[in-house]
Amino acid sequence: MSKKSKCGCSETNVERGLSFSDIDENWKLALDPENIFWSALPRNNGDFSLPQNLIDLYKKELKHLDKEMHDFRFNEPLNCVYIDPTDRCNANCPYCYIPSKIRTHGTQMTWEQLDLTLSRIEDYFKDKKKQPVIVYHAAEPLMVKDLLFKSIKKYHKKMRFGIQTNSLLLEKEDVEFIKKYRVGIGISLDAATEADNNLSRVSRAGGGNYKKAIQALKWFEGYEGLNVICTVTKLNVTKLSQLVRFLHKKKVPMVLLNPVRLTQKRADKIKADDAEYAENLIKAVNTAMELTKKTKQQIVIGNFANVLLAIISPTARRMMCDISPCGGGRTFLTVTADGAMVPCGEFIGFKEFSGGNIFKTSIEKAMNSKPFKEIRSRMVEKIDECDVCDFRHICGSPCPAEMYARGNMYKKAVFCDLYKEVIKYAFKMIAEDNVQYLLRDDSLDQMVMEYKY
User: Fold this and answer.
1) Measuring CA to CA, which residue among 436, 428, 441, 417 is closest to residue 23?
2) Phi, psi of 135 (to 5 degrees)
3) Which of 74, 134, 269, 390 has the highest CB neighbour number within 10 Å of its CB?
4) Distance between CA 272 and CA 233 in Å, rounded?
């Protein structure tokens, strides 16, 4: 993938140095994979020659960046709890990571159980600097919306809330409540047309969620807390740009074009080819950028934006799946409807990864449990190919649950080739000074320049 240059850049480890590789025909990359110090260099400046002042800057920042990356990987605190208040769902999406039997016959929390869950979260965070983020997630949380809204009313001054929904049960009065309490809302939508969307977003009652999702987008028009989550499969991979244009017209500020997770075997049948996915994701990124430039109305592709952040401000990234160890059981955890605490929702169905039951024990106990420690011990340094990959701390080789389901948690990511292409394109966008069109304005506003060549 690259050739190494020792270039006298590290006096403490003679094997340590910058790695050189091609971004495209116009740009080359100098990168320290360990701490993501990088420089994009025009290819016409010689055969991977480095200016002396760049080498001097690297020497100056090396220890600082090493510490920053280490702290981000191993010392970031728990900050988000996903709560699955019900196992049940009124949809039957073919790629759902929750086993079908659980979605059909699973349990639901009572008010007393949900209140107890939130009170234990409140206790855990009482001495912490930041409020925890609570995301109602998993199957279809609005199947118990009365409990959700009651809990938000009670705890909204102590926690920040979000809801991920297929919108089948969403009503106008619900939207007003969500806006009033400034709750983040994620709407599931896989395509711009009803026929394409309903191939994957299937309702148990027949048809799909398209009409209700479009109605929800109209109700939430202009709401800053809105985002759309699209699961990319071979059913919709060629139509991502079409979806971006459609959502831009609906004034949606952010869409995530996430790969289908392969925790359940049935998802393998609809996995998109890596090369085809990369090509179409890049097209969608370009579409979003062109629309933002032309209209001054932003639409951001969230998962690509996170790759950009992983490069230009590694510790500012918000999605913790693409760092190693991943955020599961570290910066976030999931509480299931029966109270089980698992490192991540992808581990629902794997009882061996429960760190305890929040109805009976503490979050501290779960965080120190053997299953949580096992997930935190999965690092790219222990995975063949990842251990020498230049992009190991940009990609993180997700997802441990996905790989565990496939027989070996210590194998490289299923979507390895996709990640490499997308990361290279992210470097290209940075080199061409397009970051301002690809990140949310508030992300840029919060950044402070630490060093510059």
Assistant:
1) 428
2) -115, 120
3) 134
4) 5
> What pLDDT is recorded for position 57?
92
Cα 344-420-44 angle, rounded to 5 deg: 145
Contact between 282 and 425 (Cβ < 8 Å): yes
Single pTM value for the model:
0.91
Q: pLDDT tens digits for 160-207?
A: 999 999 999 999 999 999 999 999 999 999 999 999 999 999 888 888
Q: Residue 346 has which token pair?
A: 């992808």
For residue 222, what are its two tokens? 């202009």
d(CA 2, CA 155): 51
Tell me how far apart the alpha carbons of residues 187 and 216 are, in angstroms, rounded to a whole number: 8
Half-sphere exposure at residue 135, Cβ-oriented, CA atoms within 13 angstroms: 18
Residue pair 344/334 in contact by the 8 Å Cβ criterion: yes
92/402 Cα distance (integer angstroms): 20
Contact 192, 243 (CB under 8 A): yes
Alpha carbons 193 and 171: distance in angstroms, whole number: 22
Q: Is a pLDDT exceeding 90 seen at residue 404? A: yes
Look at residue 2 and tell me whether its pLDDT is greater than 60.
no
What is the C-alpha separation between 402 and 400, in angstroms, rounded?
5
State the Cα–Cα distance between residues 368 and 190, nearest whole angstrom: 38
Strands 254-259 and 300-301 turn out to be: parallel
